[in-house]
Every structure is written in structure tokens, then in C-alpha cells.
Design brief:
Length: about 150
């Protein structure tokens, strides 16, 4: 009787480990998506910053007397310089925030991957115990194998 009970516990624990590992895999995938989004955002912000810096260069070159085909009033020049300066500050702030968030998420992702590898190891150990107890049918073993293979890609 206790042998059947311990074998049932092995199977329940295996199912629970698989469930936790699948949730962990979803969390890892979500974090990878967020990091990818941050990388894309960083690219767009960098392009925006270069565009603003180009405008700032244009305004300064015009102010310094370098010939540019458009006639701008000093007020418009001041507006361009103010806009470029504010935008540069704003974009640099966004880049800093983006970098901090990405680093924080990368650290969390590293922790989750470590947890994931430990879960996979525990699952393999539990599968071995379940095989030794002869409680796994061929179908159950195949389904567990499929689930584990999906988990191993992360």
C-alpha cells in the first residue's frame, strides 16, 4: 500500500514539476519578448537622437555663418536650438531608462533560466524514479518526453 502511495507521489511531483517548468518557460519567453521590445525601442530612440543632433548641427552651422540655402530668422534659429537641446536631453533620458530596465530584466531572465535548468534536472531525476517504479505507461512516458523536449529549448 505504501509503495503505491509513494509511486503516486512520484507521479504527482513529476506533474507539478512539469507544470512549474512550463510556467517558467512562459515567463522566460515573455521576458525575452520584453528585452526584444527594449532593443527595438533603443534603436528607434537612437535614430531619433541622431535626427535631433542633425537638426542641432544644422542650427549651429547656420548660426556660425556656414551657407545654408534657407533664410531663417534668429527667433526660428533659437527655437530650433531649444528644441534640439530639449529633445537631446529627453532622448538621452529615455535611453538611460531603457538601458536600466533592460539590465534589470536581463538579470531576472538569468535567474529564471537558472531556475529553469534546475527544474529540468529535477524532472529528469523524477522521470528516472517513475520509470523505476514501473508506474509510467508508454504513452505517459512519450507525453512527458514531448513536454520535456519543449522545455529544453529555453
Amino acid at each position: 500500500m505504501s509503495s503505491d502511495f509513494s509511486q503516486d507521489i512520484i507521479l504527482r511531483e513529476l506533474e507539478e514539476l512539469l507544470s512549474i517548468a512550463e510556467d517558467n518557460t512562459k515567463k522566460i519567453a515573455g521576458m525575452q519578448e520584453i528585452i526584444s521590445h527594449h532593443r527595438d525601442g533603443l534603436l528607434y530612440k537612437t535614430i531619433g537622437l541622431y535626427a535631433i543632433l542633425g537638426s542641432l548641427f544644422y542650427a549651429f552651422s547656420y548660426t556660425m555663418g556656414i551657407s545654408i540655402p534657407w533664410n531663417l530668422t534668429p527667433f526660428i534659429q533659437a527655437l530650433i536650438i531649444a528644441f534640439a537641446g530639449f529633445s537631446t536631453f529627453y532622448f538621452l533620458r529615455l535611453l538611460t531608462i531603457n538601458t536600466r530596465q533592460r539590465k534589470r530584466i536581463s538579470k531576472e531572465l538569468e535567474i529564471e533560466r537558472d531556475i529553469h535548468s534546475r527544474l529540468i534536472s529535477m524532472i529528469f531525476d523524477q522521470v528516472k524514479r517513475a520509470k523505476q517504479s514501473d508506474r509510467l505507461t508508454t504513452i505517459s512516458e512519450a507525453l512527458i518526453h514531448i513536454r520535456v523536449e519543449r522545455l529544453k529549448s529555453y
